[in-house]
Structure formats: C-alpha cells, structure tokens
Specification:
With 373 residues, the protein is α+β, with helices and mostly antiparallel strands. It has ten helices and 13 strands.
C-alpha cells in the first residue's frame, strides 16, 4: 500500500482586516439604534433590550484580536452588518474558486512540479456558494488539472477529512498526487448582530498537496496515520439551504446563520478530541513526549489550551500548541492548515507533529505527520 506525503501547502489571506475595536464599535452602534427604535416595547417588556459588547470581552471569550475578511465595509456598517459580495456572472470565476486557486498556486509553486501530475482536486470547506457544478471542478478547470474533483463538507473538520481522503486515494492508486483546498468565506454565514458570536469567524483559503511517497522529493511530511470521528449534535448548526432560503422569515433569520451553544460545545468536544488524539497516538506507538508541535483547529483559545494540556499532560508552550486565531480568528476548516503552513519550521528529520480539527457534527480528524529528510 502506497504511503502518502504532505508535499506542499499554500495560503491566501484576504486584503481586509477588522480589529475587535472596529467590530465592537459597529455592533454597539447597532445595539444603541435598536434599543432607541424599540424603547417603548422594551419599557413595556415585550422586547428585550440588546446588550453592548467590548473588545475586552471578545478577547477574553475567544483569544481573537482581529480577523481577515473579503468585504469589510458592509460588516462594519451598523445599517448593513454583513459582507457585500456581488454575485458574479456564470462566465466569471466564483469567489470561492478565486480564493482557492490563489492558495493552490502558492502550494504548486512550493511543490515545484507541473499540475499534470495532480490527478484529483478536493474542495473541502464549511459552506459552498452553490449546489452545483462542484466548486472543485471549477477550481480544477481554472488550474488546468485533468482527472477528477468533488466537494466535501464536514464543517470545521473538512480539511483533515480531505487529507484522509487524499491519502486513501494515494494508497489505492487512484491518484499519484491530490490537491485539497479549503476556501472559507465564513463571514457570509455569521450573524453580526449576535453579541455572543459576531466576532468568531474570518475568511481565508488554504491548499494542501498530498503526494505518493515513492515520487515525493526531499522534505515534506510523511503521513503516519489519519483518524476520523463524527457524533451527531445540534449544538453547532446552520439551517440555511435551498429548501428554506425562500422562507417568509428570509435568509437573515437567526437559525439560517451560524448558531451554537458554546458551553455545551466546550464540554462535549474538548474531552472527545483530547481522548481521540491520545488514543490515536498510542495506536501509532507514539509517546506524548515525541509530539513536538500541534496544529489544532483554531476554534477558541480556551478550547485549544485545554486540549493541549490534556494531550501533553502539562501546559504546552506557544511553540508546541500553535495559535493563529488572534489575527485570523476562527476560519473553520482552514484554521489548522494556516497554523501548519505558517509554523512548521524548526523540525529535524524524524520529528513528529499533529494536524487536528474539530467542529460541527460533531466531527474531528487527526493527522499525525513526521518530517522527512
């Protein structure tokens, strides 16, 4: 059975960044306007007054200080509070494809091989902008790649599920190299009028090239093992879809955007993921002391810190448990790949790390990697 290697990665970062202060200023203006417009109903007790937020609350709750977005003006306008991304004609490259292609080209350049060697394209992300044709096929066409492509969605775990799928294609001989991309316009499904979640997400795109070990050049990362897990839960949910996007309440209804019960998610997911990592490491014959670095899903600073402590049995150092959500925020499937792409230096051949994701579903994926010589 052919072993797989992570040969290269790529990252596209949007041009606009929103600080906590900018986001909170817009939110608080919206709150003040809402409360003023509904003052009589609030006083009568038929409408509940909205509560303002603060940059300090956002930072403490999440560890996030800023986030990148594809459109800033609409998000920070208190009268709009959503990204304004004009629909493109069918003859233009879709926005998700555009982002994915940019990340993919960076990965392909780092890889240093022609796209003719790529046999499959996987587009793995939380929210596709359309039902069909598949985003992966559009991306494949834009890059001039032959073979096949398809979309997959496992929410925040999509990238690790995508790496697992790519590795399986390599093992079966279905492809010698696979391009896996994660374009995320998370701002498009975020409720910027919700105090508890308006700060969570950012936009980004990442790319990973997974290649057969027998044709891989020096460097890169051997994939030691992959494991996937899903457990159904409604604690993170988004009900938007083609069956309800014309509902009388409209697509802006709260349950047609991102909603979660954060405390329940924390309580359920942290032990599930930590136990999964420890069990998978044991199955691979790895000791905790061998794990040089973890590139976890960038969900929430408190979740990542707790998982790191449970896995290592002590407080991890910043070099062991990589955090990028302070500047990128939660970027769903792309978060662990951003962390890996930006912070995989300093490894000697034979040293081991972990790419791990977790999120709605619940879903979780672990990919143990070892630096190649």
């Amino acid at each position: 059975m052919q072993k797989a290697v992570i040969a290269a990665t790529g990252l596209f970062t949007p041009p606009h960044s929103i600080s906590n202060t900018e986001l909170v200023d817009a939110f608080n203006t919206y709150v003040a306007n809402f409360n003023a417009e509904n003052a009589a109903a609030i006083e009568a007790g038929t409408v509940e007054a909205l509560q303002p937020s603060s940059p300090e609350f956002v930072l403490k709750a999440s560890g996030i200080q800023s986030r990148f977005v594809m459109n800033k003006d609409g998000i920070i306008d208190p009268a709009i509070m959503r990204p304004q991304l004009p629909e493109r004609s069918n003859d233009e490259l879709s926005i998700l494809a555009e982002m994915a292609v940019a990340a993919a080209r960076q990965a392909i350049e780092a890889w240093g091989k022609p796209v003719s060697e790529i046999g499959a394209v996987l587009c793995a992300c939380s929210n596709m902008q359309r039902a069909y044709p598949a985003m992966a096929v559009e991306i494949q066409n834009a890059l001039g790649i032959e073979g096949f492509g398809f979309d997959m969605n496992v929410a925040c775990s999509s990238a690790t599920f995508g790496i697992k799928t790519a590795a399986d294609f390599i093992a079966s001989g279905s492809a010698k190299a696979v391009l896996m991309v994660n374009p995320e316009v998370c701002s498009g499904h975020l409720n910027f009028k919700d105090r508890d979640s308006h700060f969570i997400f950012g936009d980004v795109a990442t790319a990973v090239i997974v290649e057969a070990a027998d044709q891989a050049g020096p460097g890169g990362w051997d994939i030691l093992g992959t494991r996937l897990k899903t457990v159904f839960s409604n604690n993170i949910r988004n009900n938007f879809g083609f069956l309800n996007n014309a509902a009388p309440e409209g697509i802006g209804a709260p349950d047609k955007l991102f909603i979660q019960q954060g405390r329940k998610v924390f309580k359920d997911v942290v032990p599930m993921v930590a136990d999964m990592i420890i069990d998978h490491a044991g199955e691979l014959g790895l000791e905790r002391s061998e794990l040089k670095r973890m590139w976890l899903h960038q969900a929430n600073i408190n979740m990542n810190d707790m998982i790191g402590r449970k896995v290592l049995g002590r407080d991890p150092t910043p070099e062991e448990n990589i955090i990028v959500l302070d500047t990128y925020a939660n970027t769903s499937s792309a978060g662990s790949i951003i962390a890996f792409h930006l912070h995989n230096q300093g490894f000697a051949a034979g040293e081991t790390g972990l790419i791990c994701s977790f999120g709605a579903g619940y879903s979780a994926g672990t990919v143990f990697v070892r630096k190649r010589g």
